[in-house]
Specification:
411 residues; alpha/beta; Aspartate Aminotransferase, domain 1; 7-stranded mixed sheet; 4-stranded mixed sheet; globular; binds pyridoxal-5'-phosphate
């Protein structure tokens, strides 16, 4: 499909006229996307290291996913699982059970529309299973924009300012066992805590991987107090760090795992998965929703899960990680402005002074590379290329990043 520049201008003008300004969007008008590349209305192509915020671990329009979507579209569209069950929903839940980062396969799932909705449901399940009200989240957490999940989120602007009052019974601690023990003495009785919610690599918070022993010690603390461990893998999961789930790096089994973003291969789908007895602790009819587990999204997710669980995917993700890490470390050794290169596997970011982040992202865009920032002060550039990216595209993207960074530093 082609679209004229004039039509693109119309899109921009109509966006200003009809779309709430609260939804930020750069001036880019997308007319096509394939693999690691996006085509704009003016014919320019961009290497996409943003992936619709981490939703394209397999790139734009992976052939198997697109084929499965077409086949499902020809069969039936929306059904609502609560009206008539269908195989793609059950099949995704079966795959999620098989892939759960824990022993055996006695795991069940509920499918929903978005990461935030999944986190909300994980908290509902934890409350129903424990009979306790409180939830503990961490400094720099991001769990979504709905009332409960923005209450769990640890960033005021733009996520919380003006949107209170917030959900009650949400407590926060730094990522530290000592701090949690203090929280349990000073602020909340651990006997009234239903769950902790933790990202294995904090995404929006700045691509901060959990310290190596923290998930294990958190698991022990949870076990000591009968608290459930909710692993939010919305951004770090579905292969983004190499293994299917980032928590696999830590060898810890969570009680509930939340997945989203790349799960639907570009279509909206999210899931909560956990031990069968926890998932069944909610009374019949207590979970669900009109569109949750849409058949077309499930048809896509089935292929996505099949792909990210293969040794070939893992090998490629590890190779991408190695290339990214080597190049970024070399850059950091040369440019004193780089405060840190951090992340887990290929889920990597570079920390810079925030004004350099903004300038580098703008310079990269001019050079045909799409990047996103993250971090409490917008102090990091996160890299979310497809993990199926070719060596040439990866080298070109990293070249553009380096040139943009040097340009920003020089100006
Ligand atoms: N949890 C994490 C770790 C996320 O990164 C996000 C989104 O960025 C969410 C939850 C919310 O997902 P959604 O935007 O699909 O509601």
């Amino acid at each position: 499909m082609t679209i004229s520049a004039a039509a693109g201008t119309d899109v921009r003008a109509a966006r200003d006229r009809y779309v709430s300004r609260a939804v930020t969007a750069p001036p880019l008008v997308v007319v096509g996307a394939d693999g690691a590349r996006i085509t704009a209305d003016d014919g320019a192509t961009y290497l996409d290291f943003a992936g619709g915020i981490g939703c394209q671990n397999l790139g734009h329009g992976p052939a198997g996913v697109v084929r499965a979507i077409h086949e499902q579209v020809d069969r039936y569209l929306h059904q609502c699982f609560m009206v008539g069950m269908y195989e793609p929903y059950v099949e995704v839940c079966r795959r999620l059970a098989e892939l759960y980062p824990g022993p055996g396969s006695a795991y069940k799932s509920v499918l929903v529309n978005s990461g935030a909705e999944a986190v909300e449901n994980a908290v509902k399940i934890a409350r129903a299973a424990t009979g306790r009200p409180a939830v503990v989240a961490f400094d720099r957490a991001f769990h979504g924009r709905t009332l409960l999940t923005m209450s769990l989120t640890s960033k005021v602007v733009p996520y919380k300012r003006g949107f209170g009052p917030f959900a009650p019974e949400v407590y926060r601690a730094p990522v530290s066992i000592d701090a949690l023990e203090h929280l349990f003495k000073a602020d909340v009785d651990p006997q009234s805590v239903a769950c902790v919610v933790l990202e294995p690599v904090q995404g929006e918070g700045g691509f901060i991987p959990m310290p190596l022993d923290f998930p294990r010690r958190l698991r022990e603390l949870c076990d000591a107090h009968g608290i459930l461990y909710v692993d939010d893998e919305v951004q770090a999961g579905v292969g983004r760090t190499g293994p299917v789930w980032a928590i696999e790096h830590y060898g810890v089994t969570p009680d509930l795992l939340v997945a989203g973003k790349s799960l639907g291969g570009g279509l909206p789908l999210a899931a909560v998965t956990g031990r069968a007895e926890l998932m069944d602790a909610v009374p019949v009819g207590g979970l669900g929703g009109t569109f949750g587990g849409n058949p077309v999204s499930c048809a896509a997710a089935r292929v996505v899960l099949g792909t990210v669980a293969t040794p070939e995917f893992r090998r490629r993700a590890d190779a991408v990680a190695w290339t990214l890490r080597t190049r970024l470390d070399a850059l950091a050794a040369d440019l004193k402005e780089i405060v840190e290169v951090r992340g887990l596997g290929p889920m990597l970011a570079i920390e810079l002074p925030p004004e350099l982040v903004t300038a580098t992202i703008a310079a990269a865009r001019r050079r045909g590379l799409l990047l996103l920032s993250c971090g409490l002060r917008g102090e990091a550039i996160r890299l979310l290329p497809p993990l199926t990216i070719s060596d040439d595209d990866l080298a070109e993207g990293l070249g553009a990043l380096e040139a943009a960074l040097r340009e920003a530093v020089a100006s």
